[in-house]
Write a structure and sequence with these properties.
alpha/beta, eight-stranded mixed beta sheet, four-stranded mixed beta sheet, 32% helix
Length: 295
Amino acid sequence: MPNHVVVIGSINVDAILHIQRLPQPGETIQMDAFSKAAGGKGANQAVAAARSGAKTSFIGRVGNDANAAFMRGELVKNQIDTQYVATTADTETGQAYILLQASGQNSIIIQHGANFELTPADVQRATGLIQSADFVVAELETPVAATAEAFKIAKAADKVTILNPAPAQKDLPEALLKNVDLIAPNETESELITGIPVTDEASMRQSAAYYHQLGIRGVVITLGSKGSKWSGNPRPGLQGQSRRYHGSRGYLYRCFSQQPSARSRQYCRCRNLRQHGQLVYCPEARRIPVDSDGG
């Protein structure tokens, strides 16, 4: 029986402007090409979960526009339940405008659009869905109040809650944090939340202790190409040696799919490939080779 993952989060269309370089103030430059891709941190999480083999449902909002139809289609194509993806009239679907330079450097401007219209009432309408889940996953591209409501419902039903605190915010409310089982910030996000720069093993332990004092049982601090650091006591659904994984996604992949850790590592290596339109690079479980290095 596959795990059931409910994602509450953002749905964005990435509008990608391919340019040689950024313009100087007052300068007009020519664009080399334009492309559009499905994105948004919430949508990315949902597709990653679905392609890992989990039954996946989504709670979010889109606008009343062509981009809404495009994003609904992308989610459905990935076998994600969109029953609780609501439409906000007179509002555009979220977009990210990406200035992608020939060097590979990028600058991103976010238009939250309908994502910021998600409310606790939207979440309450999905109470039965949340109560049926094994995992409830969220990030911070939608209003914190809606996420806090989802986690409150999940914890009352003894479900595992996972927070990717990106984009990072200071002073996250206790109403949210007290219902988080696992938090997975990167070094920069963790510093903003805790005030502790992550520079070495000691500072990672200090940062993890900060989260544990808030009642969060599991902490995964992602370290880019260096992998990730796990701290905490395992509970059902949160076992594993995540310190070996390349970032948090491999660890979550194992939770969602119940696959061997070797496949989880390979999954993260695939995910670490950078391409805008992140849905493209979420591989299906059956397409992920299992390495044999044992580490």
